[in-house]
Amino acid sequence: MLLRAVQDLGWPHPTPIQAKAIPIVMEVKDLMGCAQTGTGKTAAFLLPIMHRLLSTPKAGTRVLVLEPTRELAAQVEDDFKDLAKHTPLHAAAVYGGVGFGHQTHALKTGFDLISATPGRLLDHMDRGHAKFDRLQVLVLDEADRMFDMGFLPDLRRILHRIPKQRQSLFFSATMPPEIVRLAREVLHEPLQIDIGRRPLAAAGITHAVYPVAQTHKTALLTLLLRQPGMESVLIFTRTKHRADRLADQLLSRGFPVECIHGNRSQGQREDALEAFRQRKAAVLVATDIAARGLDIENITHVINYDVPGTAEDYVHRIGRTARAQAVGDAFTMVSPEEEPGMMDIEKSLGQPLPRVTRPDFDYGAWKPIVMPPPVSAAPPPMDGMHSTRRPLKRRRL
Question: What is the sign of the dihedral through the CA atoms of 158, 160, 162 and 167?
């Protein structure tokens, strides 16, 4: 039944993390996995877990997946449903911003898998809605992101209220000391896999760095968005306020724009994502809430309106394009004060990224000085990006 679903999804062979993780999960051993987003780790834990669920009698909720954001929790539910369509298995996502009704029903009924954000799950647990006495597997996904978002106290409360005898799977894109300490608390004699610990961008991404004064960023962005080929563009800003302001500016200039960030309601965020998926909005402006895990097909360009804080953040942001061996473009707009941060990112990536200036753009009083990239660096992208773009392949979970 699972093989039929895999065939329906068009997956010809497992990704590296799937090839390494699936046998470990099948052996019911604890696992600590270090892997970047877009590597297929969702299916790496869902497939063997679902295989086990199908081979044992149904007995309430047996799997709990903890995610840092609503979107990631919902994505796990969607991926589960894609894989379970030929099976009797059920999953539900539990997160804030929506009513308790359906979530309460799923928790009290004992759906096979619950994918949840920590805060809303604790709300249900405090109300007596959630029973995990039959829990067999705990998955802690995007652990470093959860730590960054301040969820560690909530995680500890949840851990104290679920069975200690369980299989635990721990996934994180990075392994700073704080995350390693948490893993030691959660896991028992875990096996470890490491898929590209060093930040690495997908091979199909063409990078370009655009030096520009902070005051001229929106004008340059407008010029870039009017190029041919800007069909589906995800733009990242540093703050919620900047995301709202930039979306309003682009809307006033005639671009079909949607915006998502933490202050928007769940309904607004879902509507924005759906409009972007359906190409009703060619541009989606977002904070880093959209940097991890969101699986939106065929994004042609990712633009960093603000330089990311770390190389890992850079890789996660641009990983929204060129997914599943497809191709895409990543532009980063860098003001003079952001150059040190950009250079740190390049150092972590182990390569300089090509600087690009536009001869048709008025840079004002400040003129960017652009050094030619080394011979080994990738050539700067041309206007009308990827007119011979290779066909985009099916997504991987």
Answer: positive
